[in-house]
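testing teh design pipeline on a random one, pls ignore if ur not involved
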């Protein structure tokens, strides 16, 4: 394996890369992104410490379907595709783990497509926060570490300013609480009602 370091916003894996590799995030945080036909970036998923990525290209031998960039300064260990395929084929438990991950990735893409179909960016933000809290490592309803406003904005197809205003309103209504890098969902039921359209987004 090879160990490489990446500065914040550096491209870790590119769609144009013809040499697939399996990446393991040693430290930092990564984000999978793609671009619309008019050049806007769309966030797809996050890769947290201890997680891996690039398995789709390793399996089918094709270029990555999205770019992976460093959300923070990160260190990644890469395993060449042929060696990764050998490990997967020789170890059924490992193959099952990779299949489970691919199923999770498909479910995540479906959820992201549903999120982007919502008409209100405030509503989309509430949906995303609830999704991130479910997959987060912090105890209780929390997002840890919380992404930047810009990273959240590209996940919900909105401007950073829109996300900042929405956070301001949610903090005013005591729906959220920030503790260092952790964002705690104080009123997850309130956020869920907004996400599902049962409650109108509050005003400042």
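output:
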């Amino acid at each position: 394996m090879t160990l490489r370091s990446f500065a914040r916003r550096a491209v870790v894996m590119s769609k144009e890369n013809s040499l697939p590799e399996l990446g393991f995030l040693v430290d930092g945080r990564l984000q999978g992104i793609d671009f619309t036909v008019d050049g806007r970036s769309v966030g797809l998923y996050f890769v947290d410490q201890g997680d891996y990525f690039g398995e789709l290209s390793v399996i089918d031998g094709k270029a990555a379907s999205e770019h992976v960039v460093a959300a923070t300064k990160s260190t990644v260990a890469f395993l060449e595709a042929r060696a990764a395929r050998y490990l997967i084929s020789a170890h059924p438990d490992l193959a099952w783990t990779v299949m489970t991950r691919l199923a999770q990735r498909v479910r995540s893409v479906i959820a992201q497509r549903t999120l982007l179909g919502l008409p209100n960016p405030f509503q989309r933000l509430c949906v995303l926060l609830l999704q991130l809290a479910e997959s987060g490592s912090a105890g209780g309803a929390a997002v840890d570490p919380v992404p930047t406003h810009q990273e959240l904005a590209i996940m919900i197809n909105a401007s950073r300013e829109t996300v900042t205003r929405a956070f301001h309103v949610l903090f005013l209504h005591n729906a959220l609480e920030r503790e260092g890098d952790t964002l705690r969902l104080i009123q997850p039921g309130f956020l869920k009602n907004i996400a599902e359209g049962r409650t109108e987004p509050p005003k400042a």
